[in-house]
Amino acid sequence: MVTNMMNNVVEKVVAGDVRTAARLIRDIDDELPGTREILKALHPHMVRAYVIGITGAPGVGKSTLVDQMIHHLRERGKTVGVLAVDPTSPFSGGAILGDRIRMQRHCMDDGVFIRSLATRGHFGGLTQSTRSAIDVLDAMGKDYIIVETVGVGQDEIDIVKSAHTTIVVVIPGMGDDVQAVKAGILEAGDIFLINKSDREGAHKTLADLKMMIDINQSKYDGGEWRPPVLMAEAVCDQGVVELLEEIGNHEQHINAMSEDLKIREKADIVRTALIEMIKSRLLKEILKPMTDSVEFERAVDSIVDGTRDPYSACDELAFPCTRP
Ligand SMILES: Nc1nc2c(ncn2[C@@H]2O[C@H](COP(=O)(O)OP(=O)(O)OP(=O)(O)O)[C@@H](O)[C@H]2O)c(=O)[nH]1
Ligand SMILES: [Mg+2]
After folding, report:
1. Measuring from each residue's beta carbon to the nearest atom of ligand 1, which residues come in under 6 Å?
2. What angle do CA 277, 282, 284 make, to 5 degrees?
3. Top mutation candidate among 63, 64, 65 for ligand 1, by most atoms within 8 Å of CB
4. What is the number of domains present in the chain?
5. What is the pLDDT of residues 167-189, one digit of tens each?
6. What angle do the packed helices 125-139 and 18-29 form, to 10 degrees?
7. Phi/psi of residue 170, each to 5°?
8. Is residue 100 part of a domain?
9. 294 is a domain residue
10. Is the pLDDT of residue 12 over 70?
11. Would you say residue 119 lies in a domain?
């Protein structure tokens, strides 16, 4: 019975059924039992959609850009899945609402599937549910999957690691933003896009970014991809076609790599993803019961009232069997 239901879900997702896929993504996000089995069964149907990650600070114009990208990809007959991920708000907040509004014109198009993920604080984490949602969209047969994430923190870097091509969006005159880029995302960015380039300071931001990228000159001499820096004005659809062209160039660059290197890169990606997956299972299955327990609360009380030190409490909670 359960298997029949599961097969039914798998069949419908593979056939591209929007409602089934949407429900499955929600169930994955809610960590309902049974979703793992469905993901296992879907795996052979994942035909490797091309995954594009888009990240950047709030309000830089990511959704506007995604909306235009969808438009151009659809004109070329490509199907598109979009995941708008907001790790900053535990509830469906303003950003998600903005994402929906920005991409509204595609809502009647069968070739476009847009979903938001905004939960945080779950054991298992947003990174994991995003990866699983990408898998669902892939099994649906989407040609392109675009993942929009807010900000430039570790979560976003982890999320964009699932992407084949990652675009970092900044806007002119945000010195801090470039700093944030420096702080970590530079490594993850395959393409940098200065949006709202009609604003003052666009050329300075362009020069700054190019300079940062040039620091790695020796890497590019060895044949590695040099991240291009583009200018755009997403609201007027300026620079979007050029962006898609660079994404195509990056895809070609990846395809042209030696088999050996491709396998090594893939192993790196798989390794990171598998660690993430194991981590989230351990957190959920082991850490959660541990911290939800009476013993845990008792330990908290004893540390608070000074009868126990946290180190011993930790040892006893984590390794109860070795208790003297
Ligand atoms: N002047 C100007 N405004 C733009 C441009 N692109 C987007 N905007 C505006 O910037 C605002 C934010 O755009 P969004 O696309 O929602 O930005 P976002 O990065 O998706 O925002 P979050 O999802 O909240 O992080 C909107 O009012 C857009 O109309 C642009 O190229 N120039
Ligand atoms: Mg947005």
Report:
1. 56, 58-64, 95, 98-99, 102, 150, 195-196, 198, 233-235
2. 95
3. 64
4. 1
5. 999 899 765 555 555 556 677 78
6. 160
7. -130, 170
8. yes
9. no
10. yes
11. yes
Euclidean distance between CA atoms 193 and 206, whole angstroms:
9
Spell out a b/e string for 64-86, using b for 16 or more CB atoms within 10 Å of the CB, else e: bbbbbbbbebbeeebbbbbbbbb
| Residues in CB range of 50: below 8 A, 6 or more apart | 143, 144, 145, 164, 165, 251
Q: Which two tokens stand for residue 76?
A: 């070329």
pLDDT digits (tens, 9 = 90+) for 221-273: 888 899 999 999 999 999 999 999 999 999 999 999 889 988 988 898 888 88
Torsions phi, psi of 121, nearest 5?
A: 95, -10
Does 202 map to a domain? Answer: yes
The rounded distance, in Å, linking the Cα atoms of 7 and 101 is 34
Distance 57 CA to ligand 1 centre (A): 10
**CATH code assigned at 165:** 3.40.50.300
Cα 71 to Cα 75: distance, rounded to the nearest angstrom: 6
Residue range(s) defining the domain that contains residue 101:
45-256
* Burial (CB count <10 Å: 0-12, 13-18, 19+), residue 23: middle
Sequence length of the chain is 324
In this structure, are residues 144 and 49 in contact, taking their beta carbons and an 8 Å threshold?
Answer: yes
Alpha carbon of 158 to ligand 1 centroid (Å): 23
For residue 244, report the distance from its CA to the centre of ligand 1, in Å.
19
Give the model confidence (pLDDT) of 41-54 as tens digits: 999 999 889 999 99
Question: Closest residue (by CA) to atom 30 of ligand 1?
Answer: 196
Tokens of 260: 């050996």
On average, the pLDDT of the chain sits at: 85
Model pTM score: 0.87
Rounded-to-integer distance, Cα 169 and Cα 195, Å = 7
Q: What is the mean pLDDT of residues 120-124?
A: 50
